[in-house]
Amino acid sequence: MDRRTAIVAAIIGAVAVVIVAIITIWPQVTKPQPTPVAVPATGLESELSKANIILTEATGKRDQVREWLISDPQYQVMARTCLTVLTGKRVIDPIPLDVIVGKYRVSLGGSTGTNYPADKYTDMDKAKAAIFNAWKERHPDFPQKSFDEIVEVVK
């Protein structure tokens, strides 16, 4: 094979790799994101309660988590993301927001106590996983194996 043929073959191969990469990532890039729920910070606790998300199970920590929900942008964005994921649905058994936040932080590569900027708490898929993982931690003997199995439509 001469040099010119080798160059053409290399270019064709590179173009093929780029096309495969575009085909692979295109569904993720074009995936529509739901519109975030617009709830003022003072109304988040009530809306979370309707979705069967409680603030915490820890004795004596409810006021602290309530304060975070009112004043901490991380908790506010995470709560709104949970509400967006659960639009028209609720978790079948109550789960605590503080545990969901911890599970979400772990999914970002940190520990349950790692703080991230508020804009890092908007990933709907990670929120679903965090909700499910918090639920599964609370109910390890239950048979549900996915997010869709732990939510029900609100009537």
Concise summary:
The strands form 2 sheets. Strands 1-3 form a two-stranded parallel ribbon. Strands 2-4 form a two-stranded antiparallel ribbon. The chain is mainly alpha-helical and 155 residues long.
Topology of this structure?
Elements: H1 3-30, H2 44-50, E1 53-54, H3 62-71, H4 73-85, E2 89-91, E3 95-96, H5 97-107, H6 124-138, E4 151-153
Parallel strand pairs: 1-3
Antiparallel strand pairs: 2-4
Helix pairs in contact: 3-4, 4-6, 5-6
How would you describe the overall organization of this protein?
This protein has 155 residues and is mainly α. It has 2 domains: 1-31; 41-153, no CATH class. It contains 6 helices and 4 strands; from the N terminus they run H-H-E-H-H-E-E-H-H-E. The protein has helices at residues 3-30, 44-50, 62-71, 73-85, 97-107, 124-138; strands spanning 53-54, 89-91, 95-96, 151-153. It has a two-stranded parallel ribbon. A two-stranded antiparallel ribbon has the order 2-4. Helix 3 (62-71) crosses helix 4 (73-85). The longest helix is centred in the first third of the chain and has 28 residues, at 3-30. The protein starts with a helix and ends with a strand. The model has no long low-confidence stretch (mean pLDDT 87).
